[in-house]
């Protein structure tokens, strides 16, 4: 198995955490320039990471990769509530990635502009729901949804997009997992 991605991507990191203890090759690439970009173009028309290659089969998108790995390793499927939590995590993560891209494009935050209004509301609705779920025990086990939540929080903190002071349960969850297996080894700061 080959996992294509970058060390900074939260979507790649969740799959690396999920593959802890499994034999695979990690192809670390710069997706925005040079040979990494060429490889990305050759492998995935969506031009996003992660992607997984196994026995000649390419799989795009972390969510589908996770389903593929579940099948391959005969793991139980996620419950519908867990799927919904993943959708919220993905919605927040996509919005934070968009926010970073806007900043990198020199487009300043303007609360009156539609894109920012929608993003700001989505941050608030998804994060407050996730905060509530952590508070009520929804992320007590270190399973795939917890890995995805951790990768979201840690990436947002790493990129200095948000500090989570308003969400004490999310912050405590992030803090509690600093030493969880393979978390330090997959830290985007290294
Ligand atoms: N839904 C995708 C999202 C993946 C994604 O957004 N990856 C980012 C890196 S964090 C990417 O490849 N961005 C490149 C781009 O948008 O041009 C997944 O879960 O795999």
TrEMBL record:
Location of the GST N-terminal domain: 1-77
Pfam families for this protein: GST_N_3
CDD domains: GST_N_family
InterPro entries, sorted: Glutathione-S-Trfase_C_sf, Glutathione_S-Trfase_N, GST_Omega/HSP26, Thioredoxin-like_sf
Gene3D superfamilies: 1.20.1050.10, Glutaredoxin
Signal peptide positions (record): none
PANTHER family (alphabetical): GLUTATHIONE S-TRANSFERASE OMEGA (PTHR43968:SF6), PTHR43968
Protein name stated in the entry: Glutathione S-transferase family protein
Species: Alteromonas gilva
